[in-house]
């Protein structure tokens, strides 16, 4: 974080797994920590010297969660403490108390930056394995938000990788209907370009998706 703090960075965007708030039992098997322990973990991260230097070097911190800061590895809509966990994340991000994210289920949101629409997706709160990653309510919001925007560039943040060649990775490939729905929706947007940034994997990968004959329209 000190390296970032030294650069001329206006905003810092978390893509999830800010901290490991779940308790690992064995390999990928884990169980949630009590909410009090999760809060203490967030406080420890936030009070760290390097993170404090980062906070003082940027104008704003935004973000979403993935599974480990949601509360459980591979977590989905069945997580019983997700409402409480949502408030912990928003407290960490210093989300205003009058923000819609404080009262709306899920941490998805959008922000208008000059010429850019920043869309933050929640791939945990509504996730139903074998059925949907985002849930219909978030889908309706997502499509309407993008259609109403005049931004030329749409940057989407997803804690879950949109596509990866990493074997066994948690990604949108496990939800092919949601994946193709997003690609087809993007393909219909004639006047916007799309960039999908995702987290989770502890490595860097760039993927170019071609969805129209004239060339690539969607890149991660």
Task: Describe this entry's structure for a reader.
- The chain has 220 residues and is an alpha/beta fold.
- It has seven helices and ten strands.
- A six-stranded mixed β-sheet has the order 5-6-7-8-10-9, covered by helices on one side. Strands 1-4 form a two-stranded parallel sheet. Strands 2-3 form a two-stranded antiparallel sheet.
- Helix 2 (35-47) runs parallel beside helix 5 (82-92).
- The chain is globular.
- Mean pLDDT is 89; it is low at 213-220.
Structural class: alpha/beta
The average pLDDT is 89
**Main sheet?**
6 strands, mixed
Task: Give the strand order, joined by hyphens, for the main sheet.
Answer: 5-6-7-8-10-9
Rg value: 17 Å
How do the helices and strands follow one another from N- to C-terminus? Answer: HEEEHHEHHEEHEHEEE
Measured between the Cα atoms of the first and last residue, the distance is 23 Å
Number of helices: 7
- Total beta strand runs: 10
Q: What is the overall silhouette?
A: globular
Specify the helix fraction band. 25-40%
Q: Low-confidence parts lasting 5 or more residues at pLDDT below 50?
A: 213-220
Beta-strand level of the residues, as a percent range? 15-25%
Write the layout of secondary structure elements.
Blueprint: H1 2-5, E1 11-15, E2 22-26, E3 29-32, H2 35-47, H3 49-57, E4 60-64, H4 67-70, H5 82-92, E5 109-113, E6 116-120, H6 136-148, E7 153-158, H7 176-188, E8 193-198, E9 208-212, E10 215-219
Helix pairs in contact: 2-5
